[in-house]
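Thanks for the sequence, V.! I ran Pentatricopeptide repeat-containing protein At5g40400 right away. Repeating your input here for the record:
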Amino acid sequence: MLRASLNLLNQSLTKSTNFYVNFIPKLPYSSSPSASSSLQTIQNSHSKPLSNPLYNLLPETQNPNQIVNLISSSLKQTNSQLIHLQNDIKPLIHHLSCHEITRVLLRFQSDGFSALTFFNWVKNDLGIKLSSHNYCYIIHILAWCKKFSLAMKLLCELIDYVKDCSNCENVFGSLVFCSKDCNFDPVVFDMLIKGYVRKGRVREGFMTFRNILEVGFLPSVISCNCLLNGLLRLNFVDQCWLLYEEMCRVGIHPNSYTFNILTHVFCKDGNADKINEFLERMEEEGFDPDLVTYNTLISSYCRKGRLNDAFYLYRIMYRRNVVPDLVSYTALMNGLCKEGRVREAHQLFHRMVHRGLSADIVSYNTLISGYCKEGRMQESKYLMHEMIGNGICPDSFTCRVLVEGYGKQGRLISALNLVVELRRFRVSVSSGIYDYLMVSLCHEDRPFAAKNLLGRISEDGYVPKLDIYNELIESFCRCDSVADALHLKAEMAQRRIKVDLVAYRALICCLCRTGKCREAESLMKEMLKSGILPDPQICRALIHCYCKRLDFDKAESMLNFFAKEFQIFDTESYNCLVSVLTEDGDMNKLMELQDRMLKVGFAPNSLTCKLVIHGLLKSTARLEKNESLLRTGEFLKGILRETAGGPLEKWDNVANNAKKKVVIISSI
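Predicted structure:
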């Protein structure tokens, strides 16, 4: 029966070059054989044997027809004879083809040790390229001799080097083809499924499962579970159910491990409505759901917010003599906390302890996190003291959620006191928590408190990173404490932390805001020497600084410098200079500036036009005795009224018209 099935499959293999059906999309793995490998993937192991009658006139050690006999005789004696034999038959080595290798292997198909010794000698010592059929024969021999671990190793090696699973020379087809010539154990097909899954090539494993059924064999439930697990890891949920249905159809009975895997499939699938039907199917198969099954389902229900169903399963567990454990209770408490039902979660916690279970760090953290989310910091801190009293040390999650809870309420002093208390209990506080406190203090513009904290925690080995220094410098600069900010910059240099654009920008803007233009410009030159380019904010700060000091020439010089050197055409900076000139009332100087800036590449916007018109109106108001200028002033006022309320895109035309009006007024 077995041979008949194999012969039928062999006939189908010769008629078709591809008998795979695409059930799963291809996975991204490399299937190209290694260049240094000794495996020759496609090699016809049924090449014609050496049969030249003239060879028989030669001595035995020089007769190619005798090479199989010579090697077989040597193997039957001692393994060390192969080394001497290699020297004795050196002229015949090149006659040792894949066919001769197969003939030797078949002579030792009941002696796995000798067959493997010969195989390794050919592969490693002689360096002869082996065919996929040579591999299949040795795998069959080792499996027949119950040397499964050795067979599995060679099978995985063969899987690695076979080019393409859709090729007619695939591993399964080669194993079936070679099985007709030697003893074999069908377990080799189960091993092939496991080998594919182990190598991450689940698609080929699934196809192998289908082809094993076509041959007439039933894969073991163990190999099916292995394949199910592989499909689940890759989130091939639909294929998991296809495999399970196929198992039921052909009569492969699932075990408890199968149902636990399928339970995880249910959780990923999100179809929790079918769980009761699934549990009934388990019972029909003779398997009672165990603790793992219930915990998996309860966790799934809680994640989806279906707490009623989760508690239904929790009650069912007691009826079926399955005692909930810490995982069960923690999952339920977590579900309650997510819905804001922290008091009920705490009651469940007490029930768990009353029933003899000792709370662990996870269950405490679940409750502490729930209370912190509701802003009930007193209860959270009480639980922290309780867990410390029970000998459970708070972990990084406990510390972080408590500190952030205080931070969200704006109670940073309480958060700092908590850290001091944790250190007193010898609880390790992570650098992430210190980072959070430093940043929070800086955002509240309390840089001196942050600096004091840095000094204390640095004694414990805390080393601030670049972003923490930037936060401190920005906070000091917002408070106009530029001296402290510059001191931090010097400290960064001592620690060999390179100052970046963020710190330079904050310092330069602060210096400009406090009227220290030259110091700001000097700092910018230092920044340029370090290879950091300025941005529009730095340009804006410097221009504003010089404009406040009414140093028009320097402001214009800086505008030109940023435009020509860094292609920064900051219209806001340009408008700042225009605004100061209009207040000064020197329209000739304003128009000369406009001409120069247009040549550089600055384009006026709507605000520029407003400023120019405003300057012209002020200029005409001073010459009220000149009737023509007054009429011009009224005319410009009309323009301003008509355009001020219009959309911004119309101001481009106004800019062009404004220049014409300026020329008219200048000529009057």
